[in-house]
Amino acid sequence: MADSVTAPPASPADVGEALRKAAYLADESTALIAFLAQRLGKPVLVEGPAGVGKTELAKALSRATGRELVRLQCYEGLDEAKALYEWNYRKQLLQIQASASTGGTPEAVAEPAGPGADADGAATNLGGIFTEEFLLERPLMRAIANPEPVVLLIDEIDKTDQEFEAMLLELLSDFQITIPEMGRIEATTHPIVLLTSNNSRELTEALKRRCLYLWLDYPSAEREIEIVRLHAPEIDEVLATRLVEVIDMVRELDLKKAPSIAESIDWARTLVLMGADDIDEKVFRDSLSIIIKHRTDLDLVADKVAPRLGRERGSNGGTRGNGAKPSSNGG
Hints:
3 domains, 5-stranded parallel β-sheet, two-stranded antiparallel ribbon, 9 strands, about 45% helix, about 10% strand
């Protein structure tokens, strides 16, 4: 992460260059949306298949801007208490018991401070168990209340329900949170907000209206070769080209989970450690579990792709030197 928070970018090209320095190769549309998110102050909804770099974009923005990354990982059943805040009930109970033992009344302790209450009195009075001292911050509130600028990542929003989306609307529109017992908490700095979705369900129009939109798909072969070599510089260009060709063969199949860009990078590093200079049938079968993570997918890929690599090897009269490809379309 940078030593300090960077100034707002002057152009999409500046954002693209900053992301490149943060080890993320952004195309023009991605750089433009990331630029607008910072200059317009609007959240970004990033949709696309699993494994195309949606989460990594938020991490790269954090590195490029010098902001802390605050991440909320969504899941089915996620509620306000886990996403926004909850009260430390055990600590509140101890405070009530301590007040009762010194002659206070539990009713006075538990009574929330009204909007017109004296601020100092609300904070120091034994009646103030609904104060920041007893508040447990969750990721959304931590991003809003943080005195330093942050990147807020709300990851896989499509795994939650519409009620959770509705709860987000105030935060995404006004960058504030309302706590009934304390009132409104507004952001002191403007977070960069990214929401990611694997497009497993349709999100509400109300949520989409508040966001800029970015669709990320698997990159072109040329771009993926760049990405692989950026993260695994030990692999030579010819072998990286061959790797991406084979990855494309695999992604063409009807799989439960296609190989992600991160798994392409892992495979490149694996091939380097194996000392491979080509991807023939044996190398492919030996390292298949690096890119395939479902048992049925393993069988399908081994049956459909591995024999093609064997036939390519035979038709070329043996091992190709340094991983050279047999044809421009991957054979």
